[in-house]
Design goal:
Two copies of one chain form a homodimer. By secondary structure, the first copy, chain A, is α/β, with parallel strands linked by helices. Chain A folds into two domains: 137 residues, Peroxisomal Thiolase, Chain A, domain 1 (3-Layer(aba) Sandwich), CATH 3.40.47; 227 residues, Thiolase/Chalcone synthase (Peroxisomal Thiolase, Chain A, domain 1). In chain A, 38% of the residues lie in helices and 19% in strands. Chain A is built from 14 helices and eleven strands. The first copy, chain A, is globular and about 55 Å long. Chains A and B meet through helix 2, helix 3, strand 3, helix 4 and strand 8 of A and helix 2, helix 3, strand 3, helix 4 and strand 8 of B.
């Protein structure tokens, strides 16, 4: 298998981007990425998007995006695994190059969610759950994650304050990210007094509905060394796994085997343990998710996600910084774009160009991108190489 | 790049399968495929589906299908390029193995289209066109292909009779395929007297709305030789290309560069010319499509698709048999499944197990699967190896 590097990254400020269509977003992020790479060779394009069909009445992005990018005829595919679609797009670009089918592969993640109402967006997102057995019966994602939160509080003594501290920390990081949708600072009290969505989760425990896109350009390490535009960043590990789509089918509502397995695979491929990872972007679709994922990946012991957060261990200056970008919570969560934007942030940190939120020790980073209530998970490990 | 073989194929009789859900269909085809392969090792699953979101309110098949297949935790992805989603799923499975990431890759294509009304299905399919500039303004696929048909009749003198003969031939083949949705024989007059859909295309020029699934299992040639359950069938060439999503943006409404480019790539990879191909399954979503695709691939000269059809050159006993399965027209067109079912048919012919529709000279076959009005195209070349 060929060794793969990330040589370009592109995004835009995320938000409610009324004046931009899904095609505009994908094209803008891609052009920013190619400008960053200083090259416009693209052999193949993989597009991560959860539901252009439901949100925009637009499937067939594999034709539309190369076309509007001025690269018609370029081989392209759209990939989807709900909110893990972006991570999947990066993995697909990786496969294209690893197999020798392509030398330069662009991965772009995009979602334009505000073409429909907030209620319709929540219903659209619920198609990532089991339609026949979950969504049809009235439970959607805030409800599913609320069940996990209640169980976590009951079993481990996780507190409302600890969950709020995830949001406070992520908004503190997002405040330093000029591309974040909601960069405003937030206090623990503000989170805990925000409107109730699904007990115990309140509005400020939930990631927002967002329009946005992100893109990364991959090539072989050999080509990257020849180009030398940026410090070398390689993808050393990838893990992908699935699990039951229904939360109620899990053996343990607080264990998420897709995350554990994807993490093990990625670490094995990279020849590392979790102790070798310096920082991570993880899928904080709800505050409780960040706590559970930290535990599932072995960053902390089971039940210690809440206390570790409140102790500052996952802050920018903590032992293991998490979501330096602001995460889904503050940066925003245009679902198909999120997994690609996680790579954007890790590469930015590994290059040492993260500005005010730059970590001191950023050599090895991880991204963890997840679909549904943990029905699928994609994990990447990236390393700065000198 | 590793050499890849097809070691298992699975389908079911297609039709209006009211009693089966999208998950049932995907699982049934997959289990049939694994039974055919005589093995149940699956390292990864790629799922081709155009729009589970619109047709079934169900995204995240990458979690649901492995789960219901009894293979939860298996890495999976859903891929989409409108009606070319099935071909893309096979190509993705190929990449998985070619890259060394997996050794056994299952590709399953599925679409459950009768959960919505016929009008809603046509609207859903129109999301493969440009929503903002084509679909929104009222043109859908029968209309787009009718424009091409009119232009083809005008430029090349293609006749209504010749188009009807495509349907007559495909129903004659489908009549020999126990899995076809509409195996009934049809006369030229019946096609030409069927109800008008979009002038000059009548109902019997159009592929139907179908529920169905198909699956294929790939592994390395080395593994296939070790297993030896079936005659060896290898995938020797793959081509993927895109083009403008809007028909009106083409330089020539009768040329489809995505087909031409994908064909050239696949032939180059296989080290062949179109003269080396014995037969093909091609994307006859409308009768005019089969005529245009034959010409675009160079099977016949431009303008000769109609006359060649009426002369019987593409019949079972013709010089270059096309759509021995009955094609989309008679076998049915569950959009995400079609590209995988094309592989099913070619493998069946190459194995020599096609029964009454078995070709005498089937050594090298081609599949051509297309999205939208030609905005994307995936082509595979398969060969029987002794």
């Amino acid at each position: 298998m060929r060794d793969i590097a990330v040589i370009g990254i592109g995004m835009m400020k995320w938000g409610e981007l009324w004046e931009k269509s899904i095609r505009d977003l994908a094209v803008e992020a891609s052009l920013n990425c190619l400008a960053d790479a200083g090259i416009d060779r693209v052999d193949t394009i993989s597009i991560g998007c959860m539901s252009g069909g439901i949100f925009n009445g637009q499937e067939h992005l594999a034709s539309m995006i190369p076309d509007y990018l001025g690269m018609k005829n370029t081989p392209a595919m759209r990939v989807e695994s709900a909110c893990a679609s972006g991570g999947l797009a990066v993995r697909t670009a990786f496969l294209e190059i690893a197999s020798g089918m392509s030398d330069y592969a662009l991965a772009v993640g995009v979602e334009k969610m505000t073409d429909v109402s907030g209620g319709e967006a929540t219903d659209g997102l619920a198609t990532a759950a089991d339609q026949d057995y979950e969504a049809f019966n009235g439970i959607n994602f805030p409800g599913l994650y609320a069940l996990m939160a209640k169980a976590h509080m009951h079993r481990y003594g996780t507190t409302r304050e600890q969950m709020a501290d995830v949001a406070v920390k992520n908004h503190r990081n997002g405040n330093l990210n000029p591309l974040a949708q909601f960069p405003g600072l937030m206090t623990r009290e503000q989170v805990m007094n925000s409107v109730m969505v699904a007990d115990p989760l309140r509005l400020m425990d939930c990631s927002p509905i967002t329009d946005g896109a992100a893109a990364v350009l991959l090539t072989t390490v050999e080509e990257a060394k020849r180009l030398k535009k940026h410090p070398l960043v390689v993808i050393s590990g990838i893990g992908l796994a699935s699990d039951t789509i229904q939360l109620c089918q899990r053996k343990d509502i607080l264990k998420c085997p897709a995350i554990e397995l994807a993490g093990q695979k990625a670490l094995k491929m990279a020849g590392k343990t979790i102790r070798d990872i310096n920082f991570a972007e993880i899928h904080d679709c709800f505050t409780i998710s960040e706590i559970m994922i930290m535990e599932e990946l072995g960053i902390v012991e089971r039940g210690q996600g809440g206390p570790a957060t409140s102790a500052g261990h996952t802050a920018l200056d903590g032992k293991f910084p998490i979501n330096t970008s602001g995460g889904l919570k503050s940066k925003g969560h245009p679902v198909g774009a999120t997994g690609v934007a996680q790579i954007y942030e890790v590469v930015t940190q590994l290059r040492g160009t993260a500005g005010k939120r730059q970590l001191k020790n950023a050599k090895v980073g991880m991204t963890q991108n997840m679909g549904g209530s943990g029905g699928s998970c994609v994990i990447h490990i990236l390393e700065a190489k000198s």
